[in-house]
Amino acid sequence: MTPETLEALAHRALVAATLHDLAPRSPRLSARMPPTSGANVVVAVDDPPLDASCFATARETLPPDGIVAVVVSSTTAAGLLRAGVVRDPTRDDAYARASAWAASVRAPLAPPVSPSRLRAIVAAASASGFALVEPEVRLLRSGSPRTAVDRAVVSVVLRGAVARPLLFVPERRAPKNGLVKLREERALDGWIEAREARVQAPASLLDAALVALARHGGPMRGKDLLREARAIRAEAAESRGERVTPSASDGPTLAKALVEAWHEGWLELYAVEPRPPLLR
Amino acid sequence: MTASARFVYDEVPYDTEANAETHPAALATLARMCGRSPASPRTARVLEIGCGNGENLLAAATWLPRARFVGFDLASSAVAAGAAAASRSGLSNVELFAADIRDVRRRGLPDGTAGSFDYVIAHGMYSWVPEDVRADLLAILRDALGPNGVGFVSVNALPGWELRRALREIAMDATREIDEPAAKVAEALRLVAEIGRAGKDADGFFGALSAAAREYEEHVTRATPPEAPYSRYVFHDLLADYNDPFSVPELERRLGEAGLRVVCETPLRPGRATPVFEGLAADMARTGTPFLQVLVERDDAPSASEQAAPRADPDLFFWADLAPVSSGTYRTTTGALVRPVGDVGLARAVAHAPGFVRVRDLADDDDARGRLARQLFEGFCEGVFTLTVEPPPCASSLGERPRTAGHVRARAAEAVERRATSAVVTNALHRSFRVSWSELVVIRALDGTHAIDAIVAAAIAEARTVPSSLAGPLAISERDAERHVVTVLDRLRRHLFLLEDEP
User: Fold this and answer.
1) What is the pLDDT of residue A67?
2) Does A145 lie in the same domain as A228?
3) Residue A85 and residue B288: Cβ atoms within 8 Å?
4) Is B169–A266 a contact, with Cβ atoms under 8 angstroms apart?
5) B 228-247 near A (Cβ less than 8 A)
6) pLDDT tens for residues A135-172?
7) What is the extent of the structural domain holding B215?
8) FRET partner for B97 with CA separation of 20 to 30 A, picked from A146, B39, B285, B501?
């Protein structure tokens, strides 16, 4: 794994921790095992496979508010990305959609894990006093699985297509059933970056935000992005002879859409400024 | 199948049916198109590895009485059921036995049969057995094949199968603590349906997965017989203990290590009939076909170095069931419309339908013959026309005392007796059709001893013993019953279910 990829995975881990309100106040990240001195967030991948001793080492070294983030991807999505699938714009079946998705994804690819491997990682963490925390699976309408590991399995396969951090906290800090709340509004507290312009004529606030990101050409602060997006949306509406006024719901709406796009892998969120590097 | 799978397949039988692409004539036809010299299907020796209840072999054996069929499977209950069915059908050219692939590999094939099979089928096996059994499976296939033998191997294929893998991962994980097969399948299908519904309007990966879930639901409906208590297909596929997909290069590598090489893909697909495997991997990445079937041969086969692309062959026989739709326009059994305007050869072919005619005899000169062969080959790849090395022994007209093959009759009789609303019967080209009870009653009587009047009388008598909803047109009036029987017989003739008169 290249240092650049590891850096990108570390950012995703910190974003996940922030969205779940688990990030330490002053995050100091380490991608080493044992962690570097003073680190309070360990970022790991399952390559080579993590075992209980890895988590035991982290447990001994991390402070009480420390967390371990194991960044994974789904085997399915990894297979599609690796296979060099070719998009066929004339078709709209499942595979054509998957090809279109694969062609649009640029996010770093973490080592894939199967559900059984994911369970083994959680078991190894548990043996060292770490508990997995997971929010509800919002994609399913019939209710979320009860345990955190069940939710993680479903989430990784359904949408963990792009590097997805599994967050582990010391057991005594874990909420009941490992259920954490997803605080999407925190997305606007950080930075946002889109790698390519996907929208020509913005209609929604997200569209307008993407235009703003494309114009900016680099990571933007969330609050600046919201302001720019509102302006672009208003400008676009005016050119159509319409009028749009800012609303208090703009922030939450945009934040939700940004988190969704981040999950899908075609937009990057940062909890802290992307420069200088997180991992030193 | 393995020892650990024995219990599973004995406990939950697989609903094995005939697979048209594995029929010796289908294999011989493709081999011939690829420049090989396959054995005549009529007198062929055929082995099926993992034959389940043997239905794939029985359905072929009944139309090819001079050919010999051998099959084995680990599921002893399925093998016993197949042997009983063969006996009921009067088939003496089928031998089924229960065995573990690993044992067969260790002990060898039954005496004197190594290297003697003209066709060896391993359908639905390679992806669905443990890794160590895969090598044994290919080794048995290699050992069994004669020098000009043709093998058939099918696998779940990458990258198209990746979305199915996602559904499998979720279903396997969610049902891991459910023991009862029907409950396991029900929960898996509930989840698949939920994913299909939840992502209907989603974009990105989840949108694709949701579409895959909806496609899988449709697939399961097609793959599950209506009379099945639950989808045993799902149990043995989505929820199977072993189910691994393979990429084209990986499959080719594994075949190569086993001393086998690919002849061509089957069925041939339009635009894919290019030299053997060249470009197939890229094509699979473009189309996402989740399943791959290939013909293989020994790497020391006499023609193995000639990697000819499948091509038209004027010595093949043409057949199509073309029903006239309007003047000069016909519809095939697949629903395709054929309008042979301005082409004498194709018009002749259509005029000859539904009989078999040699492609060579449909044109007057070499140019026309070559052009026609190419046209028919394209139609064959599209699934519109049939081309075959040998016409099956079917009647071209309705005789006085029509008869069908013994196994077809036996299946019909069994379904009639248990008052099934419908059942699957397989024709001389190994194509399966689901027919209703009122048709099964007619088929049951086709033993060549009954005149049509007697068949009508027997059908009416039988119809009086069942509810009118089952008897259908047989219960309305004598005239309707007679019309129904004649219609059924005509359809059976057109669909190659009636044997030619014995000399």
Assistant:
1) 95
2) no
3) yes
4) no
5) 247
6) 998 888 777 788 999 999 999 998 766 889 999 999 99
7) 163-236
8) B39
Task: Tell me: do A132 and A29 sit in the same domain.
Answer: yes
Structure tokens at A217: 């050409």
Q: What is the pLDDT of residue B228?
A: 87
> Which of A128, A156, A178 is where one domain is finished?
A178
What is the sign, positive or negative, of the torsion defined by CA atoms of A273, A274, A275, A280?
positive
The residues of A whose Cβ lies within 8 A of any Cβ of B are 74-77, 79-80, 83-86, 88, 93-101, 104, 114-116, 139-142, 145, 150, 153-154, 157-159, 161-162, 264-266
HSE-CB for B184 with a 13 A CA cutoff: 21
Check whether residue B417 and residue B483 sit in a common domain.
yes
Q: Which residues of B touch A97 (CB under 8 A)?
A: 207-208, 211
Residue B381 and residue B468 share a domain:
no
Chain A residue nearest residue B175, CA to CA = A150
Specify the pairing of strand B94-98 against strand A164-170: unpaired
pLDDT at A201: 66
The chain B residue lying nearest A162, using CA atoms, is B205
Q: Tokens for A231, please give them.
A: 């302006």
Q: Are residues A108 and A13 in the same domain?
A: yes
* B70 and B124 assigned to the same domain: yes
Q: Which of A79, A101, A162 is closest, CB to CB, to B159? A: A79
Choosing from B335, B360, B388, the residue where a domain stops is B388
A115 vs B contacts (CB less than 8 Å): 169-170, 172-173
Residue A277 lies in a domain: no
Q: Identify whether residues A223 and A125 lie together within a single domain.
A: no
Task: Determine, yes or no, domain membership for B401.
Answer: no
**Domain membership flag for residue A253:** yes
DSSP string, B429-488: TS-EEEEEHHHHHHHHT-BSS--HHHHHHHHHHHHTTS-HHHHGGGGT-HHHHHHHHHHH
Q: Please list, in sequence order, all residues whose beta carbon lies within 8 angstroms of the beta carbon of residue A252, skipping any fewer than 6 positions away.
A: A184, A185
3-class DSSP state of B309: coil
Residues A221 and A150 in one domain: no
A126 near A113, Cβ under 8 Å? no
pLDDT tens, position by position, B258-312: 999 999 999 988 766 555 566 788 888 888 889 999 999 999 998 755 656 788 8
Residue B303: inside a domain: no
- Number of domains composing chain A: 2
Mutation to test the A interface, candidates B158, B203, B209, most A Cβ within 10 Å:
B209
Around Cβ B270, how many Cβ atoms within 10 Å? Answer: 11
B419: in domain: yes
B254: Cα within 13 Å, side-chain hemisphere: 21
Residues B203 and B292 reside in one and the same domain? no
B48 contacts: CB under 8 Å, gap ≥ 6: B22, B54, B56, B57, B69, B70, B71, B72, B120, B121, B122, B123
pLDDT at B27: 98
How many independent structural domains does chain B possess?
4
Nearby residues of A143 by Cβ (< 8 Å), 6 or more positions away = none
**How open is the CA angle B145-B150-B155, to the nearest 5 degrees?**
100
Note the pLDDT tens digit of each residue in B81-126: 999 999 999 999 999 999 999 999 999 998 888 889 999 999 999 9
Interface check for B173 against chain A (CB to CB < 8 A): the answer is: yes
Evaluate if residue B394 carries a pLDDT over 50: yes
pLDDT band of residue A264 (cuts 50, 70, 90) is: confident
A152 and A205 share one domain = no
pLDDT in tens, B138-176: 999 999 999 999 999 999 999 999 999 999 999 999 999
The pLDDT of residue B349 is 74
Residue B290 Cα, gap to closest chain A Cα (Å): 9
Range of the domain at A104: 3-178
- Considering only the beta carbons, identify the residue of B166, B197, B282 that sits closest to A74: B166
The residue of A97, A101, A156 whose CB has the most chain B CBs within 10 angstroms, and thus the best one to mutate to test that interface, is A97
ipTM for the predicted complex comes to 0.89
| B172 and B145 co-located in one domain | no
